[in-house]
Amino acid sequence: MALFADREDAGRALAAALVPGPDAVVYGIPRGGVVLAAEVARAHGLPLDCVAVRKLGAPMNPEVALGAIADEVLVISPEAERTPGLTNDQFQLTKDMEQAELARRSRLYRALRHNPAGREAIVVDDGVATGVTAIAACLALQQKGAARVVLAVPVAPEGWTPGETADEYLCLSRRDDFLAVGQFYEAFGQTSDGEVLKMLDLT
């Protein structure tokens, strides 16, 4: 059952539920998460930025998350140990490929151009599936010296939490019928690089 018309709708719902501090910066997870983050930043008059993260998909099934990488952060999923036949060389090849895309996106989006050191960092995504990308994003901001990290998402599986990687976790709907993030949106198309750049005011 859809909960939100589209990402903008979900972003407005998140904005209404958040009470950010005056020094907060909103960091969207590209690409779709930036759409929601833009709504949050606009509603509260806060700076909008992004934190580049890449999921490490299994070689034979990219939908299976072996982990995620962000700036100087590697998170390994329990799925990595349960993936039959996965070798260290395969994992390293996947990591190297995604590292190149991470670097491209970081440059293109000018990720983390607002220094999070000593500030509240609000991490926004369009939903949590495995949670590895959200955790990687939060860890990256912690390592950059954020005074407080808030993870805000519209939907996630029941029982999932970011643990100690976030000081606060806001989820509008925690579902026990969770299959994929897209099932909770009426419209859930791909967000383009161009759309992200426009939202970040980099065009």
User: From the helix content, strand content and strand pairing, which structural class follows?
Assistant: alpha/beta
Largest sheet, strands/sense/barrel? 5 strands, parallel
Tell me the count of domains: 2
The portion of residues assigned to helices is: 25-40%
Which characteristics define this entry?
203 residues, alpha/beta, Ybab, Chain: A, 6 helices, globular
Commentary on this structure:
- With 203 residues, this protein is α/β, with parallel strands linked by helices.
- The protein has two domains: 7-52 and 111-199, Rossmann fold (3-Layer(aba) Sandwich), CATH 3.40.50.2020; 54-107, Ybab, Chain: A (2-Layer Sandwich).
- Helices cover 34% and strands 24% of the residues.
- The strands form two sheets. The protein has a five-stranded parallel sheet with strand order 2-1-6-7-8, with helices on both faces. Strands 3-4-5 form a three-stranded antiparallel sheet.
- Helix 2 (32-44) links the parallel strand 1 and strand 2.
- The longest helix has 22 residues, at 88-109.
- It is globular.
- It starts with 6 loop residues before the first helix and ends with a helix.
- The model has no long low-confidence stretch (mean pLDDT 94).
Topology:
Elements: H1 7-17, E1 25-28, H2 32-44, E2 48-50, E3 54-58, E4 61-70, E5 73-76, H3 79-82, H4 88-109, E6 120-124, H5 132-143, E7 148-157, E8 168-175, H6 193-199
Parallel strand pairs: 1-2, 1-6, 6-7, 7-8
Antiparallel strand pairs: 3-4, 4-5
Helix pairs in contact: 1-2
